[in-house]
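Tokens as discussed.
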């Protein structure tokens, strides 16, 4: 089969190549990949800015059709339309595995960088992390289940958003857009912030129901929008220090700040805000099983609309163009189609 492979550690070292088609082991499912989303992590792997385990196939956001199943698999069958979580390898016995926090497992290896991922014609996945998708949910939209599950974990689980909340989302990329939709689905008022280059993406956010957007941060304006008190919840999806510092300044007293965007190892923030305003800060990483079911239901029932977030389509052979679009922020979510005819 054809696959996009990180062949060795270092900058670059990614090739489209012939790769052995996976064979289902006991408890595994082979999925024919129909759509795979490009993530910022894929770009970081290209530039050797994050860990990967080469040789390894990239790609961790995808949808597809069950091709075959291994011994003992009973929950899905060939022909089923599916997506899957990312934690392909876990120990299964630690505190985190047993309490539903499998991505915290020290033995965890995720698809797309730890083990082979979805920038390929086929992928092997353990049965326990497979989720079926309904016929009315397109493969393209279903490929956004992973970033949507990440956004739902950050907003609903970590952010505990209420219908009466005003929520600030920093960053109009895919996860920021989906976090905004998750907050709107809870009935909250949503403000989204970006930079001048984000004007087009912020217009898409407005068209999908975000209440207010801005390209220039102004603490005064946000306080005007919130009757002077500040936002109930701020969610950073950028990982950028200026965005984080600005957002923390407009969280109300006793408010909540959620960090979803991946940051540098160290960062200077105004730490005294935690005590001075009794702000709660929580980090949110990845997703849990229920977030996938929530994402599928929100999209398939029309309570969340993600079609407008899909701004590019490429065959596997044009993977460089797809990663280039992501790196240069051309659009929001770029899809690769490994089995495009």
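Sequence:
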């Amino acid at each position: 089969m054809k696959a996009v492979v990180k062949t060795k550690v270092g900058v670059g070292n990614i090739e489209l190549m012939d790769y052995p088609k996976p064979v289902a082991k006991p408890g595994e499912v082979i999925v024919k990949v129909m759509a795979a989303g490009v993530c910022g992590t894929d770009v970081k792997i290209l530039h050797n800015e994050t860990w990967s385990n080469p040789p390894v196939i990239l790609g961790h956001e995808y949808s597809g059709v069950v091709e075959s199943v291994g011994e003992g698999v009973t929950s899905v069958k060939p022909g089923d339309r599916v997506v899957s979580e990312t934690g392909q390898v876990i120990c299964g016995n630690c505190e985190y595995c047993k309490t539903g926090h499998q991505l915290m497992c020290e033995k965890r290896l995720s698809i797309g960088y730890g083990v082979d991922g979805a920038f390929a014609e086929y992928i092997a996945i353990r049965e326990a992390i497979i989720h079926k998708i309904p016929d009315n949910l397109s493969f393209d939209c279903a490929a956004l289940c992973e970033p949507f599950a990440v956004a739902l974990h950050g907003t609903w689980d970590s952010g505990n958003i209420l219908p009466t909340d005003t929520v600030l989302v920093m960053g109009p990329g895919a996860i920021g857009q989906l976090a905004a939709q998750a907050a709107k689905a809870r009935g909250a008022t949503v403000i989204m912030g970006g930079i001048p280059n984000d004007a087009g993406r912020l217009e898409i956010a407005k068209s999908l129901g975000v209440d207010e957007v801005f390209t220039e941060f102004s603490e005064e304006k946000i306080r005007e929008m919130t009757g002077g008190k500040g936002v109930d919840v701020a969610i950073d999806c950028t990982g950028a220090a200026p965005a984080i510092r600005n957002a923390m300044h407009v969280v109300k007293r006793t408010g909540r700040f959620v960090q979803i965007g991946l940051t540098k190892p160290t960062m200077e923030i105004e730490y005294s805000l935690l005590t001075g305003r009794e702000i709660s800060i929580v980090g949110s990483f990845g997703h849990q099983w229920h977030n996938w079911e929530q994402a599928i239901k929100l999209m398939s029932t029309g309570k969340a609309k993600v079609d407008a977030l899909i701004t590019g389509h490429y065959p596997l052979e044009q993977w460089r163009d797809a990663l280039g679009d992501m790196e240069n922020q051309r659009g929001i979510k770029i899809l690769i189609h490994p089995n495009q005819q």
